[in-house]
Structures are given as C-alpha cells and as structure tokens.
Specification:
The chain contains 17 helices and twelve strands. With 403 residues, it is α/β, with parallel strands linked by helices. It folds into two domains: 147 residues, Rossmann fold (3-Layer(aba) Sandwich), CATH 3.40.50.1100; 216 residues, 3-Layer(aba) Sandwich (Rossmann fold). The strands form three sheets. A six-stranded mixed sheet has the order 1-2-12-7-8-11, sandwiched between helices. It has a four-stranded parallel sheet with strand order 5-4-3-6, with helices on both faces. α5 links the parallel β3 and β4. The longest helix has 19 residues. It binds pyridoxal-5'-phosphate (PLP). The site of pyridoxal-5'-phosphate has 19 residues, from α11 and α15. Pyridoxal-5'-phosphate binds next to α11 and α15.
Length: 403
Amino acid sequence: MSEKHTYGGAYVPEMLWETLQKLDAEFENAKKDTAFKSEFENLLKNYSGRPTPLIFAARATEELGGAKIYLKNEGANHTGAHKITHCLGQALIAKRLGKKMLIADTGAGQHGVATATVAAKLGFSCKIFMGRIDMERQRPNVFLMERLGATVVPVEYGTKTLKDAVNEALKFWMENLDEAYFVIGSVVGPKPYPSMNRYFQSVISREIRAQLQEREGKPPDVVVACVGGGSNAMGSFDDFIHEKSVQLIGVEAGGRGKKLGEHASRVLSGAEGIFQGYKSLFLQTEDGQIAPTHSISAGLDYPGIGPELANLHAEGRVELTYATDDEAVAAVDFFAKLEGVISALESAHALAHVQKIAPKMPKDSIIVATLSGRGDKDLFNFARAFKDESFREFLKDEYGRYE
Ligand SMILES: *Cc1c(COP(=O)(O)O)cnc(C)c1O
C-alpha cells in the first residue's frame, strides 16, 4: 500500500525507530528469499495444517435461501485460529535478526498462547506480559503458556489489564533490544508490523481464491470477516483488494449497546488518534484517552483498528459494520446445528452478518465468511451465554474433584 494514506506510521521513541528500520529491511529481504518462503510454507503445511478447508455450508445456504455460503475454516489451524500464521512468520524474521527471545503482551491470552507455541516450536525463550487481572480471568491460557515453556510476567500497575501489559512489554523491549523480538498479535502497531502481518495472513485469501476457483470456477461476490485488530480480515481480503467486483466486509463487535464503553466498534464511535505507535481510528474519550471497550469475544475487545484496514475503509473499498453480542451467540447456535461447526465468538460476528445479507442475495452469488477460529476456547463463555445451569454445577463440582 502506498505511503500517502492517512493512517499508519511509526510514532515511537527514537530508540525504537532504528530497531523498526532494521526489522523493515529484514522483512523486505526475507520476502525476496526463496529459502525463507519455503521454510514459512513448510511450517504452514506440516505444522499448522494448511491449506485450511473451505466448507460449503449447504444446509445454512438452504435455510437462508439466498447466496451460496462458504466458510473458510481457519479454526482448523494448529492451536485453533489464524493467529499462529503471523506468529510463525514473525518468529522466522526474528531468527534472521539473530534474536533469542520472543516477547509479547496479551489480554485474553490467545496471542500469548500462539506466541508461546511458536517459541517452543522454533527454540526461542519466551516472556508474555499480562495484567494481573487478566491473568486471573484467563487462568486456562496462563496454564497453557506455562506448559509451553513461556514465563508469564504479571503486570501489577494501572488497570492491570492489556494496556498496562503493552506498556510493560515495550519497556522490557527497549531494555533488551539486542536479544528480544516483539511479536505483535494483529495488523496493528508501528510500521512495518501491519503490512508484515498482512503479508503472512494473505495466504487466507489466496487459498480462498484457489479453492473457490476449483469448486465454482469464479471468485466470491462477498468476503466477510470479523475485525478485532484486523489480521484475519486483512488476510481474507488481501488478494481481492484490486478486484473491485468482490465486496469486502469487516464486522466489528457491537457489544451490548451503542454507548462508548458498551462495544468495541470503531465504525460506531471511533475517532482518529495515535496509540501504541500508529495512527488509526480508536475508541477514545473527548480528552483523547483510550476508552473502555466491551465485547463478548475477547479477540474483538480492542480499542484500535489496523491502519491499512482503516485506510481501505476511508477509501470506500472495505465496508465496516458490526454485530452485537446476542447476534454472535445466535450465529454460533445456528451454524452449530446446521453445519456441525462450533465457531469462536469472534468469528460468529462475521457469521451473524452472513445471516443478515445472504437471504437478500441472488442464489447464484457466493459469500465466503472467514471462520477465524474454533469455539473450544469459548466453552465457559458459551455455557454462560446459553445459561447452562448444569455446566455451572459441573464447574463447582470440578473443584471438589480436584484431589
Ligand atoms: C484474535 C482473534 C480475532 C481478532 O483478531 P484479528 O486480528 O482482528 O483477526 C478473531 N478471531 C479469533 C478466533 C481470534 O483468536
């Protein structure tokens, strides 16, 4: 993408600028290096399990009575979501840069688990920074990260949540620039991170194109993906951006209301700002402080949106919309019963939008929705959302069974 766009940049302390320049140069070299490409592709194929299936959702298509619906199942990836892809890519870059340690911040823990997984696979030491409150709320992910050999560092100040973890990870990075590589979990952050992570994730759209060509002999009419920071969406869109006949739709977290604090939709109430090293749309207060956000899905509960996605939206190339918590839960249910697919709550926002638009589209049109992850990780959330009382009893009893 060209440099004239509104959003993006690298608004970082001078100390980090040099590190980012080196990263950018190494990434550019890597892209031209066939050995790098084949190592990345080998890991995607023989570790993560690509290509991921493109599922024809036959019963959902019939039920909704409009466009043919396909689901690009990124949940079939190792660790259950698309995140592993940009973590593997970044770890290979870190190796080229001679780094020995991967560091990351994490809120819900999904990015932390993906980073710890890749660190173990490729032989890095790993430190994950996490707010104390998030560690308590996300105990299962802390457990997984520790089993994968990572050190989870509790952050005890501020709100003890994600933004404090980001600050602490940045501080550690600046003190250990020679040794540590900072793994960013979406198409966000200072450049070159947004375009680098898009590059890694673009495999999703290339596979969609090839798989659909084989099955239908044509590209999709619509591609829909959920948007937290935007990595699964940018990956799903990338290969179609210059093909204007393909409509690209990102679905944000509409949460439980339209007031600031009740959702995580930048298209609802975002404003231009600079945060965590990049300029984009952020949910913020009138004073420019980052506002609290809410979503039933941890992965969409983030105040900012990837700068390239914000640019594509500003140019009118990508449409952004939202689905509410309740719509997402209903979409999980719908696709579970009709397709045997239990979607992650994040991805269910995209599925909810499919339920809205498919019936209005002609029967020979095609929607591809990206299923960014599978729902295993949301077991506790689902049990709560579906008000499953006996599951609640199970959790209580499980404590007693511990011995
Ligand atoms: C993290 C996550 C997301 C949100 O991240 P993006 O960068 O917007 O893709 C979406 N779905 C799942 C399953 C996730 O784990």
